[in-house]
Amino acid sequence: MSNPHLPEELLDHIVDFLHLDTGRTLKNCSLVSKSWIPRARRHLFADVWFETEEYLELWKKRFPDPSTSPGHYTNALTIDCPHAITVADGKAGGWIRGFSRITHLELDGRSAKHEGDESEILFVPLQGLSPFVKSLNIYGIALPSSHIFELILSFPLLEDLTVTDHYADRGFGGPQTIVQPPNPPVFTGSLKLAMIGPGHIVRRLLSLPPGGIRFRKFTSTWDGGEDTSLITALVERCSHTLESFDIACDPLSTSIRQLCPYR
Fold it and tell me: Does 185 fall in a domain?
């Protein structure tokens, strides 16, 4: 059965139904015929997770050419080893460019902290990786807020943002300027912050033009000392769109609730 003659609509329906089964079933579908491969890959590679540097290196060896990479079928990309990404990976022909259609990007640098590689984490290869990114999660990456914010601003359709365990520019010198793009993200979804220190990411958000942040949900844990005015200012800035908030700091939460008693 080297070339099974099935209407494309029927083939798509069969594979879409089987994706609810085990991954092995989909892999078998991809072996039936070349015509079955694209639809099977759409589900097999919908969610890609590089848990270790070894997994990432295996992908680079197996799919070195981004033009033929199954990363084109990926919706959600998770990288737990961002320190393994190099500048060359993001250039034309680099493997990372195969993930040009993702809508969710998650970067977790907590393992790099244990390995002592966090200073090697680069965001430049990831900037503007996909114009369709709507959700961005950044965990445990202690880089200058300017580097983090440049990545955030490189996704014009970004709605949901999570930033946790950011160590607030410690040891990176003074403030750094950012050239804001003509079409900044829409920020109409949820914002989750777990901040330690003076909150430079919050300051970056507040530096956006009026109307530039329109979050509907806000969740935060705050250990910023006495400077709670930043969170208050952020809530006030998007109070016209905010539908709910959860702040794990009772005095701060109470004061904000007084500002927005209807929430």
Answer: yes
pLDDT digits (tens, 9 = 90+) for 153-192: 999 999 999 998 655 455 444 455 666 777 889 899 999 9
205 with 235, same domain: the answer is yes
Q: What's the predicted TM-score (pTM) here?
A: 0.81
Rounded alpha-carbon distances, angstroms, from residue 241 to 2, 105, 211, 249: 56, 24, 10, 22
User: CB of 190 within 8 A of CB of 220?
Assistant: no
In a domain, 215, yes or no: yes
Q: Say yes or no: 166 and 117 in one domain.
A: no
Cβ–Cβ under 8 Å, residues 140 and 146: no
Whether residue 261 is found in the same domain as residue 208: yes
* Tokens at 39, concatenated: 């639809």
Q: Report how far residue 12's alpha carbon sits from residue 239's, in angstroms, rounded to the nearest whole number.
A: 45
User: In whole angstroms, what is the distance from residue 154 CA to residue 129 CA?
Assistant: 8
DSSP-assigned states of every residue in 57-93: HHHHHH---GGG-GGGG-SEEEES-GGG--HHHHSTT
End-to-end Cα separation, the chain, in angstroms:
61
pLDDT under 70 in the chain at which residues? 1-39, 112-120, 165-179, 195-198, 222-227, 249-263
Categorise residue 246: left if φ over 0, alpha if ψ from -120 to 50, beta otherwise. beta
Q: Are strands 76-79 and 47-50 parallel, antiparallel or unpaired?
A: parallel
pLDDT digit string, tens, across residues 112-125: 655 555 556 889 99
Asked whether residue 143 is assigned to any structural domain, the reply reads no
Total domains present in the chain: 3
The answer to the question of residue 100 being in a domain is yes
- Ramachandran angles phi, psi of 7, nearest 5°: -55, 145
Structure tokens at 151: 């990545």
**Domain extent at residue 115:** 47-133
